[in-house]
Amino acid sequence: MTKEPMVSRTVLMPVDLYRRIADYADAREISWSAAVRRLVEANFPHE
């Protein structure tokens, strides 16, 4: 079994979008990456 290399990406985004993702992650006690994944899968519902 081969290991896949770790990939790191830098993404520029508006501060308010970053804050919404961070708040979502904190509220659910999940990682920032997991929050992004869940929100994308849910089509990022708008409030």
Number of H/I helices: 2
The percent of residues in helical segments reads 40-55%
Structurally, the number of domains stands at 1
- Label the overall shape: extended
Quote the beta fraction: under 5%
Give me the secondary-structure category: mainly alpha
**Can you summarize the main beta sheet?**
none
Rg over alpha carbons: 13 Å
Q: Could you spell the SSE succession in H and E letters?
A: HH
The N- to C-terminal Cα distance equals: 44 Å
Low-confidence stretches at least 5 residues in length (pLDDT < 50)? none
Strands, total number: 0
Mean pLDDT across the residues is 86
Protein name: Ribbon-helix-helix protein, CopG family
Question: Any overview of this molecule?
Answer:
The chain has two helices and no strands. It has 47 residues and is an all-alpha fold. The protein has one domain. Helix 1 crosses helix 2. The chain is extended. The chain starts with 14 loop residues before the first helix and ends in a 6-residue tail after the last helix. This is Ribbon-helix-helix protein, CopG family. It comes from Bifidobacterium pseudocatenulatum.
Give the topology, please.
Blueprint (H helix, E strand, L loop, with lengths): L14 H14 L3 H10 L6
Helix pairs in contact: 1-2
Protein name: Ribbon-helix-helix protein, CopG family
Summary, kept brief:
By secondary structure, the chain is mainly alpha-helical.
Q: Which short descriptors sum up this protein?
A:
0% strand, 2 helices, extended, single chain, 47 residues, mainly alpha
